[in-house]
Amino acid sequence: MTSEANWTVYLSGEIHTDWREQIKAGVATADLPVTFSGPVTHHEASDDCGVTILGAEPNKFWHDHKGARMNAIRTRTLIEKADAVVVRFGEKYKQWNAAFDAGYAAALGKPLIVMHQDEHAHALKEIDAAALAVTKTPAEVVDILRYVTKGELAGYTDRSEAAE
């Protein structure tokens, strides 16, 4: 029961671990019809894009403001084009931008998959409530993508097919 459509999945959230690469590798191994998009994950480039392109700002507020607005061009465009959005909240840093991306995706009616550990469940309860799935691992995200794109459950044998 494979869906012939290619899905575009936007990967938002923390940039300090390899969760994106784990999801991409799992999708490639499972041969799923999924392509990925996401924000610029090079921290310094993301922070400094506005002043590098549009000119220096002596005030840190305006420095950050220029960068945030430039990054929003990419983020808004790619989230709007996505078929689903995965947002990961890491353990070490507060990802306010990820929370904004989750809210934006929810406001657009995009299917939202959230990934975080149990210690953040209370802080993220409103985001979790907007999500269609709340996961803890990249492998769970891959399994969700396998199911929604191909209608397959990993390790599951359909009894009707087994009887044939």
How would you describe this protein?
The chain has 164 residues and is an alpha/beta fold. The protein has a domain at 7-38 and 81-155: Response regulator (Rossmann fold, 3-Layer(aba) Sandwich), CATH 3.40.50. It is built from seven helices and five strands, in the order E-H-E-H-H-E-H-E-H-E-H-H. A five-stranded parallel sheet has the order 2-1-3-4-5, sandwiched between helices. Helix 1 runs parallel beside helix 6 and helix 2 crosses helix 3. The radius of gyration is 18 Å and the shape is elongated. The protein starts with 6 loop residues before the first strand and ends with a helix.
Output mean pLDDT.
93
Q: Judging from the principal axes of the Cα atoms, what is the shape?
A: elongated
Distance between the termini: 16 Å
Helix/strand-derived category reads alpha/beta
What's the arrangement of secondary structure elements?
Elements: E1 7-13, H1 19-29, E2 34-37, H2 43-54, H3 60-81, E3 84-88, H4 96-107, E4 112-115, H5 125-130, E5 133-135, H6 138-150, H7 159-163
Parallel strand pairs: 1-2, 1-3, 3-4, 4-5
Helix pairs in contact: 1-6, 2-3
Give me a quick take on this structure.
With 164 residues, this protein is α/β, with parallel strands linked by helices. The protein has helices spanning 19-29, 43-54, 60-81, 96-107, 125-130, 138-150, 159-163, and strands spanning 7-13, 34-37, 84-88, 112-115, 133-135.
